[in-house]
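ok posting inputs for the heme C job
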Amino acid sequence: MRGTAVAALALGLAVAVVLAGAVACAPTTTTTTPPTTTTTPTVPLSGVFGIISDWSESTHAVPVTFAAEEATCAGCHDGRGFALGVSDPKSFVASEPFGPYVVATDCRACHTGRGADLLESGTVTTPTEPTPIKAGAGAVCIGCHRERSKPTSSAGPVPGAPHPSIQAAVYLAYGGIRQPGVTYGSTVKHTQVTDMCVGCHMSDNSKGVPTHTFLPPKNPKAICGECHEGITTYDLAVAADYDGNGKVQGIQDEVTGLLSKLSTATAKAMGANTLTQAKGNIVFKSGTTTITAPVPDKVYQAAYNWALITNDKSLGVHNPQYTVSLLQESYIVLTGAPIPNSKPFPGSKLSTGTAGGTTRTPSATGTTGTP
Ligand code: HEC
Ligand code: HEC
Ligand code: HEC
Ligand code: HEC
Ligand code: HEC
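and the output
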């Protein structure tokens, strides 16, 4: 593990030097007239070293080793796999001078090959969203941080959970198992942030270069303040009590409450006391015993959507309206009634439950199911 991280960092430095050269040199000119102006390098070398140390402290510097070694996974979990656009490590490890080793999401992943193409084009496609997404620099993030396939049917023996990478599908309000005829709504302004993911997760650091820790800044004002004046916490106070606990709280507390109510009700519907995810699957347990009974559709949609929002990890910040509505509707389909005392998100139109939460089947969106 340590060895691979060091190898990744060494290669990172190599790419960094190339990149630094690229940004530090003024473009050569082929005309005979001498240029009248000089170009100031956009990123000073000190900035590049800042980038390297930021990156090396980020989760991107830590490979998920077993996934990086596996066919169908290396296309996102090995920096070479992503840059080359191939998902089977067999196709690239053979040509490596130092023998087989895995690399993390290193500089080359985003700045060479497919990563560089995505940065340049700003457009990315995903397996279930039918229209190409115009994401600016965020396209490179969505190249990995998106759904892997559409929801599986609950008919299989082990019901699948969404991959931890599903942020794009929540942010852009197209993920999850949805009901026909329901207006979930979306906080559209959030989806219009310039460069999407990059706009909030890589806001410029003090050296004037994009922050490569990939984490939102500690001070929310820097990325939310333009629209939410006076904001001091990402857990921004919302308009109503969405989880029905009798208090109007911040979005992240409301969503935490919603996740808790939905998982309790979902587990109960299976005669279980816990709902969890393990190895990409939904798992119900009663005590320490895993329940193996078939999972009915209405239970599966609730479990899947609970896992989707859990894995998004922003607790509603990415898309407050879609997150709240998806969880509330999942509860209605599961139990036949809304969460007691909860208020719907303004502008969303959920079902009433009287249509028969017990009989409706989930409808997944999208057409393909490639990993
Ligand atoms: C579409 C790109 C993509 C593919 C394909 C993919 N993953 Fe991932 N995976 C990700 C991303 C992105 C994350 C990190 C998400 C996060 O932490 O928010 C992740 C996270 C994980 C994690 C959790 C790691 C942790 O530290 O919590 C595991 C385990 C994992 N993937 C295994 C696999 C395996 C096994 C495969 C192949 C069967 C696979 N992945 C295929 C993109 C992908
Ligand atoms: C997960 C993707 C990702 C990784 C990994 C990554 N970068 Fe970046 N980098 C970006 C994005 C996105 C930008 C902003 C590009 C833009 O706004 O057009 C950027 C910008 C830069 C810039 C500024 C370029 C300019 O023209 O202003 C430099 C230099 C840079 N990165 C170097 C590195 C180095 C060195 C590493 C490895 C230590 C690295 N990056 C790793 C995504 C990444
Ligand atoms: C080549 C695939 C890939 C690309 C491109 C990529 N990521 Fe990641 N990202 C991952 C993987 C894999 C992980 C999880 C690593 C681990 O758990 O060890 C991750 C983790 C993260 C995490 C930490 C999640 C956590 O729970 O700690 C953040 C934040 C993140 N990525 C944001 C971004 C942003 C922003 C971009 C675009 C600039 C981006 N990523 C581009 C694969 C990618
Ligand atoms: C409007 C700003 C904004 C946009 C746009 C945005 N994010 Fe986030 N993201 C956040 C905030 C804020 C958090 C939660 C930070 C916290 O609670 O500390 C977060 C959390 C996350 C996390 C979990 C990080 C962790 O610490 O576990 C990941 C991964 C992530 N976002 C990826 C993405 C990706 C990928 C995109 C683009 C599809 C994206 N984000 C778009 C603001 C944004
Ligand atoms: C480009 C402008 C913009 C940015 C940037 C932005 N928001 Fe918003 N946000 C909006 C708009 C517009 C709404 C919908 C407001 C409404 O309906 O009154 C909204 C709604 C919300 C809501 C739901 C409020 C409710 O009453 O339920 C929360 C919570 C929220 N934003 C938090 C954030 C956080 C945290 C950030 C920074 C990570 C952020 N926003 C960044 C424009 C923005």
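notes: The chain is about 40% helix and 5% strand. The first helix runs from residue 2 to 24.
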